[in-house]
Amino acid sequence: MKRLVAAVTAGLAALVSTLVVAPGPASAHPFGDPQTVTIAADGARLEVVHVRWKAGGPDDLVLLGVSLGLLPKDRVMLDGAVVYRAADAAAIGPSPRFSAYLLQQITVSGAGQSCSGAVEAPADLAKSGVTIDYTCPAPVGIATVGVRTLTDLNPAYQTMATGPAGERTVYRQGADTHDWALGPSSADRHLGRNAAFQIGAIVLAIAAAVLVIRRIRRGAS
User: Fold this and answer.
1) What is the pTM (predicted TM-score) of this model?
2) Given a cut of 80, is residue 117 above it in pLDDT?
3) Are 170 and 210 in the same domain?
């Protein structure tokens, strides 16, 4: 019994020592709430793709702000703890460095052609995130969206993504691109044309049958 207690005590001590060891500034945070992106087509402009990015939590914003030189380094403690202040999001959101970072780490292309992005000024970066509008050279049916935000700070970061029709995926290092169907594919259009053709054929058949019945009735009278 004493040996069992000693073994359990030693195991707990090893576990505690592992947890207490101070990690790098970003290494303690990729395992909280994940960052998210939402991909959507523009209803009026078929060449425009909207991507909304939101950090998983204020810690992520602080880490990013420090890495971009927008927040003082003392916001990240030596033990990895992060000090967040309400004004941090307002300091990061309007910064050209932040916009440049997003445009570098989030990319969109359609039919193999890159789309140019424009970052909207966020109203509340911490709560609602930020939207990037990508304008492509032509209308986009399938958009290839790459998301690499925060993985430059720590490769363990992942991003939960949602697209049209409820499609979902997870971006991670090594799987940082995904194709999103924003409009009907060629197969869908083909099916649509077939359906329209079949409906038209049925209508014509009914109309022809009505004419034949009318002629028969006239002949009988």
Assistant:
1) 0.70
2) yes
3) no
